[in-house]
Amino acid sequence: MGQQDFENIPYMLYADRKGRIYEHPYFRMAGFSGLQPMSLKEEDLIPMPQFSKLFFIPDCPPIGLDPSTGDYKVVPEVRVNGSRTKCSAVATFLEPGLVRGLLPAVDYSTKSYALPTWAYTAVGFKDDKYWAAGFRIEYNHRWDPRYYDDRELVTAIEAYQENHSGGALVEHLIQCATQNHCFAAKNLFLKRWEAPLPVSRGCNAGCLGCLSLQADPSCESSHQRITFTPTKEEIVSLAVRHLEQAPEAIMSFGQGCEGEPLTEYKRIAESIKEIRKKTNKGTLNLNTNGSWPERIREVARSGLDSIRISLNSARPEFYRAYCCPKDYDFEDVVSSISLSRDLELYTMINYLVFPGITDQEEEIAALSKLVRRTGVNFIHLKNLNIDPQLYMDRMPNTTSEAVGMKKMVRMLKKEFPDLELGYFNQAVR
Ligand code: SF4
């Protein structure tokens, strides 16, 4: 790329020690694929959507592109009006429905802490706008932040409490809706779309990016894990009420504020049986790590409609390095996906994507093999929420070429025209 091309690339952003964000007067934005700096082309960029968040990464200088040479430069400080400012890197967290194309370009060499679990994305500034490295994979009004106005939520919770007997689960979900700002929990009180049914305290995995339990003390988990097992009665009354009243209703077991729901498969199965005796409406979904095929069989037989099974990679060694499975292995998860199809559940993979790993040729080949073998219906391309340096440190070494997230999607669509790619659970009833 000639100098003129670099001129079209947005300016690099940096933050001062108070977290105030500025565009650099000279350097252009760059991105990371894994921990490798990459320059951006205009087609890699989108205007940063309104409901995205901006972060600065303390004590970590940004890496910018020198438009006159095309070289990448660590920018520890900037001199503006004669005064020197120490620079910290800046990243964005994209609105739901968008796939991150590149990670922020950051010098992590002096970082001594683990970043909180967000999907950090490369961002720059040009023409009075922020530009992010990403692309839309699915638009779904049910998850559009513009439809979540907390001024409506407060009165909705009060009305819900007036009209319905409370209980521990409702109290927990009020916290989720008001403290964690969980859209699914808000939907319960706004009586629409997808609502949550968290049931499990324990888990048989140790995912590095777990939202409800973090091993590293420097990184607080973003959700408080549920501390009790809801009664069948409370699950059934809450679920039937929502399925009967809500448009495009989905009730989902397996939330960010709990462990692995299959640890409570008996409670889930008995509840589903009871729910389906009372209503045939809406979709009953299970978000799970897919570790117990036989427990999935029992839950499916009780009346489940759809299932979403999480994995960060279709390569067993990468899966083990991230999920740290305790008493199961990658093969159990693959068997669960195949079994779910055999049991005619609408079967989705919650594919936790990360530029530099997910778009490697080896990974794409492994994923294609998994899709062919299981016949999965839908793949969520979910940006993995994790400290990029921590993740790359823990993933196995590989020299497989990364082709770019957009190209990875094009290759999947070409090979599997009937496979649906998106970002959100689907209402299947
Ligand atoms: S399976 Fe879920 S609850 Fe268990 S460690 Fe992983 S993210 Fe956390």
Summary tags:
single chain; 429 residues; alpha/beta; TIM Barrel; 2 domains; 7-stranded parallel beta sheet; 6-stranded antiparallel beta sheet; 12 helices; 30% helix; globular; binds iron/sulfur cluster
Report on the architecture of this protein:
α6 (265-278) links the parallel β17 (250-253) and β18 (283-288). This protein is globular. α5 (232-245) crosses α6 and α6 packs parallel to α7. The strands form 6 sheets. It has a 7-stranded parallel β-sheet with strand order 16-17-18-19-20-21-22. Strands 1, 2, 5, 12, 14 and 15 form a 6-stranded antiparallel β-sheet that branches. It has a 3-stranded antiparallel β-sheet with strand order 4-3-13, with no helix packed on it. The chain has helices at 3-7, 150-163, 168-178, 183-190, 232-245, 265-278, 293-301, 316-323, 330-342, 361-374, 388-394, 405-415, and strands at residues 11-15, 21-28, 31-33, 36-38, 45-47, 53-57, 63-65, 72-74, 77-80, 83-86, 89-93, 98-100, 103-104, 123-126, 129-136, 194-197, 250-253, 283-288, 306-311, 346-353, 378-383, 420-422. By secondary structure, it is an alpha/beta fold. Helix content is 30%, strand content 23%. The mean pLDDT is 95. The chain has 2 domains: 8-136, no CATH class; 141-422, Aldolase class I (TIM Barrel, Alpha-Beta Barrel). The structure holds iron/sulfur cluster. Residues 203, 205-207, 210, 212-213, 259-260, 289 line the site of iron/sulfur cluster.
